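Please check the following for our workbook:

***
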Amino acid sequence: MIKLKQITTTGNNETTITVQYDQQNQLFTAQIPQKSIDEKLMKVQETLGRQPTKQDLIDAVKALVNEIREGNPPPTPINPAQFLDIDLEA
């Protein structure tokens, strides 16, 4: 499971995508810089000679999360119970 949770843009116009993913029956979050996604999409464009599609974007995010799953130790898990009775839209 991989879910997009948040998109953040800083004052420097740097965008970070926050995703939630599962690993070994636990939930984790990861922040992926937009630049990393753009690099993967540029490779698609160079390799296939066409503009990247929505599916290419999804595949790029999935590939980056899978790299996190395989290469990095899992980050601190989020306990979903801490969000009980909290307005998530506030």
